[in-house]
């Protein structure tokens, strides 16, 4: 038997606890074990009162983001072996209110997501799927940025979000970029105005915290720099 | 108890629920629509997990008739033909709306038009997709559209039971629980749409998210709705083998086989040559899954009880470019899909059966509409890959339109309060006892029981044993308690007790129906009745709740008015041979 994992888990019930604490568990390790397997093992067999959030377990839904060994990660896509240690600390995502234990309230994240008007609105004349040659630059790099699963890792890692509560954050701005760069969209100029604010694109200090933690390898910083460029083009009257 | 009054209540926020909400709202923005989902909006369930794509006729060389016949052939001809025809004829409208109104952008082909890729069991390449992780975009964009509308979304809120009117003649909303607080409350609605998704979590190896515990079906069952063909459970042939990890059973998408990936047994034989020499790996899911299973059972599997999926001959560059999501997933278990063979196993995937509906999603109960995987009949005995999200979107749209029309005609009927109170007390029972059964042990047992006795290969005796054991487990889960009875806030254990209670209800329907169908067809294979029996079994099996814990079962011949009996040939059916 290999040595078990030593897992330290953050516990907090804001309703009844004065302060958070850590619980310690010994968890047997097996092949292909992910952090989601670790917390599920604890909850199913060691302490049934533990809370965390998950759904798809294969990195598509973005429900199980946690702060594992000092970094925001998807629990389901983080292999225990990749951590290169038997000591594991699991905490809730920073920059979010805590509902209980590892479950955070995603509302601040989605409130900001809603602020950029995340819904597509087609131009009136579009009544059929547009024809786009795959090798044209029509889609720029929008399609690479559409893979966002709104897990909140970037938002929790961003030091600008941590220090400015109104900052829209990387995910919302990345979504704004994918709409503003989409030539099918009817309100691109209006959207650009909404992000051309101090708490919008200009708050990004290109630290790339977001890109470092994104489980989908998206680089929101790149989207945000593209938005900044468009904001400047608009100011000098050449953005259409 | 808190009461929210609404015109329309929607349980579930996957492809079907989201589309239902959008259509209901756009039909009449004055309606008050409440949508409740067990997960965060758009994050729970299977539409989000769609990898392959959506089948639709877009090319002039293809036809609705072709898609229709493929769907019936795949379904062993017991599909509800009206529902199957509606599926294929509405699919182009659904895709048009997704791309033009909702804002999805499907992958384009060389000609700049929407690309359609090959899938199994199809006479034409008609699956539209966004690379190999299509669901992320579909569901994200639909969710964004919800934000543009005045629709009340209750996240992490689950339906517990449907409520009936004082006369008991119609469904008037539901009892729900807010997972974050543990509060139980009522939504009193004119029309209720159930769209919570499937129940594959009943099996030890399964592909969907673990929250797919048949909640919607169980809720409808307890309310007395009629079900159809519940024995028809699809196993997908290529679930990733990852040992005890939760990755185990997750899908390697069908496009791989569509593109020419091959299956080999542990002895290196390309075994599909024996089971379906014509279509080989591009045969339908039921046949490929069962063939793999039989190879494994005959001792010709790998040492991990699996077979191999090999895509390496397609060229590493091709695989990495077309299937980046699959390559990445396989990398998690330390393998390279583009360059080596990977172990796969059949994995529980989809419930073809479900609540009986008509083409406007109306169930047998007034005021109750059902769509998506909760509904049955569209896919018959086996669903084609790519017809699943097609079903959710097509019927989600229809449910939304139908609900808006009904809500406009109907007055709001009050619910029977004493019934609601009784239900509430029953669901709170796990908090009232100091000791009791451990729900995780029960859940583990169900998964093993169903896999062994009601899985890919079935036999009357074992099905009977499974049925009896399920009754005992139903009693056991009724005695389950939660470890910390003062903890109602985000209590996973309590929610697991609810999940397992629901799961057992659905398992019983599956097992009972499987016992009754004494033939083999599509996904349902009976070792004691291995042949397909078109003389006696071109039939659907209907079930609903009887007295006490009894199940009321009836059968009816399939209505063959669009594709007649004379056109159904023996060659369409599988000959299962022992090898």
Please give the structural blueprint:
The complex is a heterodimer of chains A (240) and B (579).
Chain A: E1 5-11, E2 21-27, H1 35-46, E3 65-68, E4 71-74, E5 87-91, E6 98-100, E7 103-104, H2 107-115, H3 142-145, H4 153-157, H5 159-163, H6 170-180, H7 188-195, H8 209-213, H9 220-235
Parallel strand pairs in A: 1-5
Antiparallel strand pairs in A: 1-2, 3-4, 3-5, 6-7
Chain B: E1 3-11, H1 15-27, E2 33-36, E3 54-55, H2 64-74, H3 81-102, E4 116-117, E5 127-128, H4 134-147, E6 152-154, E7 157-164, E8 171-178, E9 184-194, H5 215-223, E10 227-228, E11 233-240, H6 255-258, E12 262-264, H7 272-275, H8 285-300, E13 307-310, H9 316-322, H10 324-332, E14 342-351, E15 354-356, E16 368-370, E17 375-376, H11 388-409, H12 417-428, H13 439-453, H14 460-478, H15 492-516, H16 534-537, E18 539-545, E19 551-557
Parallel strand pairs in B: 1-2, 1-9, 2-6, 9-16, 15-17
Antiparallel strand pairs in B: 3-5, 4-5, 7-8, 8-9, 10-15, 10-18, 11-14, 12-13, 13-14, 18-19
Helix pairs in contact in B: 1-4, 1-11, 2-3, 3-11, 5-15, 13-14, 13-15, 14-15
